[in-house]
Amino acid sequence: MQEQIKNIQTLEELQALYTATFGKNGTMTARLKEMKNLDNDARAALNTENATLRELFKMRQTELENAVLMAGLQKQKLDVSLNPMPENRGTLHPLTQSLSEISKILESFGYTMHTGPEVEDDWHNFTALNTPSYHPARDMQDSFFLENGNVLRTQTSAIQIRAMESDGVPIKMFGVGATYRKEMDATHSPMFGQIEGLYIDKDITMSDLIGDIRAFLKRFFEIDDVELRIRPSYFPFTDPSIEVDLKWKNGRWLEIMGAGMVHPNVLRNCGVNPDEYQGFAFGFGWDRLAMLKYNLNDIRQFYDNDVRWLKKAGF
Ligand code: DAH
Predict the structure, then answer these.
(1) Is any ligand 1 atom within 6 A of the Cβ of residue 235?
(2) Pairing of strands 112-114, 151-152
(3) Is the dihedral angle over the CA atoms 12, 17, 23, 24 positive or is it negative?
(4) How far, in Å, CA of 218 to CA of 228, rounded?
(5) Ligand 1, residues 181, 235, 242, 287: which to mutate, most atoms within 8 A of Cβ?
(6) What is the rounded distance in angstroms from the CA atom of residue 49 to the CA atom of residue 105?
């Protein structure tokens, strides 16, 4: 019997022999039933035989199962030269990419990043920026007001006020964030990203401003000959105020940003003595800059987040 078990080659045969031995009508079952008629030695021998056989069955079963498994594995082929399934890799959103480029450049110039709340109070968004409630310049920006008198920040200029209030002067900072205005067309989105720069110290001049803008545009657009056009403009929080245009590859002038020397009233509103300190501020839409850099023509596509568009645009 023991030899027989060891020589069995299939699980089915093993099962059949097991049933014939230990099943209801099995040979061992019958012998165990007669055990009471045996003397002690014979009983002990039968018990041992019973246990040994069961153990052998178990061992052979494990061996045969393993053999089946190994045979199965050997039949399987793993073709490592097959192309894997195409993998959809995510990338950073174009606006995130351009923001991080802009931040890197400004930080390398010594500006430190600041942020502020998107729901602003009147003081930081308007009044401290020399735009009191009766000021006509409030009409320049179609604002979303909240019932409590707060406003969805219309300009990151609010962040320069917060920065001066918290850090004092001298200060060299840039503010980053979303801004909101009631406007919507191909070049305007009701929510858009702005960057604000501010540099206040004892002897900062307009030339420092233009120098930094030139250096910044050179790095961001990767152009060697930055040709700028400086036009006089008006902003309530700067005096003099300018608008900066950049000559594009096709010869066209592109409006890039507003800037100017910070108005003494703004400095006073932040507890800074304008007879001692002065400096400049500048502000621009960073999605607009990204549109120019990546040659896109509809700002709203940035916010639609249509993956097909993002892929086609090269992101
Ligand atoms: N806040 C202005 C806007 O939203 C942009 C701007 C213009 C910011 C001139 C400035 C500046 O700091 O000096 O259009």
Answers:
(1) yes
(2) unpaired
(3) positive
(4) 11
(5) 235
(6) 86
Asked if pLDDT for residue 241 goes beyond 90, the answer is: yes
C-beta 174 within 6 A of ligand 1: no
Ligand 1 atom with the shortest distance to the CA of 238: 13
Write down the mean pLDDT value for the chain: 93
Residue type, 172: K
The residues pairing with 246 across neighbouring beta strands, listed in sequence order, are 228, 254
* pLDDT of res. 50: 95
- Residue 173, ligand 1, Cβ within 6 A: no
CB 166 within 8 A of CB 249: no
Taking the C-alpha atoms of residue 179 and residue 137, their distance in angstroms, rounded to an integer, is 17
What single-letter amino acid sits at 223? I
Q: How far is the CA of 288 from the centre of ligand 1 (A)?
A: 14
Measured distance CA(237)–CA(247) in Å, rounded = 26
Q: Is 287 in the pocket of ligand 1 (CB under 6 A)?
A: no
Contact 117, 156 (CB under 8 A): no
